Amino acid sequence: MSNPFFLNHGPFDILDLLKIIGISDKKNYSQKKVFDIKDLVNASNKDITFFHSKKYKDFAKNTKASFCITSDSLKSELPRNCIPLVVENILLSTSKVTAKFYPESLNDNFDDTTINISETKLKDKVKFGKNVLVGKNVSIGSNCFIGHNSIVEKNVSIGNNCSIGSSTIIRNTILKDNVKILDNCVIGKHGFGFFPINSKNLRYPHIGIVLIEENCEIGCGATIDRGSMSNTVIAKNTYLDNQIHIAHNVKIGENSIIAGQVGIAGSSIIGNNVKIGGQAGISGHLKIGNNVEIGGGSGVIRDIPDNTKVMGYPAKNIREFLKENK
Fold first, then answer.
1. Following DSSP, what letter does each residue of 246-259 receive, concatenated?
2. Which residues contact 117 (CB under 8 A, 6 or more apart)?
3. I need a surface site. Which of 76, 109, 171, 255 has the fewest CB within 10 A?
């Protein structure tokens, strides 16, 4: 599921997109409409995608996209149905095309559509504290609570039996039933993605959402960034402690427990039944298997297979760590 909240301004002619990414030789491209930009997995034959790392070559081989922004060294991994668009900077070109389809995703200012919840139809179905603001396109289920000074900005869906703490901000987010968001959280803002160009930084559009599934609890002071191309997902029955940062595109599996001050960098995938100790750090684009236990203070810089216990920096099998630190 892509972001249901940002307006797609497509379709665009492929020749217009080629101009944006600096491909001048257009005689080998027929005039074809492109309807959206999506990741390798979710792209259809109406879409354009991108492929920037061999780590995703298995996805690239099976993509259904008609066009793919990539490099000369990676283009051979694409299937015949997908025409490679070879550029010098893949992510920069992807950013420019994404901004063409979704220009509103670049602006992450405060929501100026919000009004006091007491002035909306929600006042009769939600128990709320003082100074609670709600934006446009917000739906809230039954038996929900919102604490003092919290803001539910535009484009949020909240299920039944949910509790939002005080001084919390939520946007571009879907909460399923029985979710608890504690005080001082920020959920659904754009992630940390930009490119330095000519002494200034170009912001990368984030068109994904945050999806928090049933029976999850998010601790005080947590920050969960929305996805850039895909979504940031917290699967059901997962509990996050206080002061945790979950970056864009991260996927956390079911029944996981993450202790305080953990940071998970962008696009990493955490399996089911994972336990992570306090102040651990997980680098980006990693895959952490099911039933993994990561000791507190560890630094994870490599994939971790299922049913493994690790600790230390760089994180290693816990038996090795204990043997080396007797």
1. E-TT-EE-TT-EE-
2. 123, 126, 128, 132, 133, 134, 146
3. 109
Q: CATH 3.40.1390.10 in the chain: give the residue spans.
A: 12-106
| pLDDT band of 105, cuts 50, 70, 90 | confident
User: In this structure, are residues 206 and 224 in contact, taking their beta carbons and an 8 Å threshold?
Assistant: no
- Picking from 110, 126, 97, the residue whose alpha carbon sits closest to that of residue 188 is 110
Q: Residue 231: which of 244, 218, 212, 214 has the closest Cα?
A: 212
Residues of the chain with CATH 2.160.10.10: 172-324
The catalytic site residues sit at 248
Q: Give, in words, the CATH class of 12-106.
A: alpha beta
What are the tokens at 182? 């504690």
Cβ 66 vs Cβ 82: under 8 Å: yes
Strand partners, 180: 163, 217
pLDDT digits (tens, 9 = 90+) for 166-180: 999 999 999 999 999
Strand arrangement, sheet containing 67-70: 36-37, 47-50, 67-70, 83-86
Q: Where are the alpha helices (DSSP H) in the chain?
A: 14-20, 57-61, 90-101, 318-324
Quick check: 314 and 300 in contact, CB under 8 A? yes
Ramachandran category for residue 58: left, alpha or beta (phi over 0 → left; psi -120 to 50 → alpha): alpha
Q: Is 183 left (phi over 0), alpha (psi -120 to 50) or beta?
A: beta
| Class of the domain covering 172-324 | mainly beta
